[in-house]
Amino acid sequence: MNAPANSPPTTAPLSGRLRRQTVKERFLANGGVGSIAIFFLAVVLLFSLTTDEFLSIGNILNIVRQSAPLLIVAAAMTLVITTGGIDLSVGSILALVSAVSATLLQWHLPWPLVIVLMLAGGGLVGALQGFFVAYEGIPAFIVTLAGLGIISGLANLITGGYSIPIAPSMFSEIGRGWLLGVPFPAWIAVIVLILAYVLFNETPFGRYVTGIGANAEAVRRAGVDTRWTGLFVYVLSGAMAALAGIVLTARLGSGSSNAGQGFELQVIAAVVLGGTSLFGGRGSVIGTVLGALTVAVIGNGLILAHLSPFLTPIVTGAIILVAIWMNFRIFSGSIRSR
Question: DSSP letters along 230-267, please?
Answer without folding.
Answer: HHHHHHHHHHHHHHHHHHHHHHHTEE-TTTTTTHHHHH
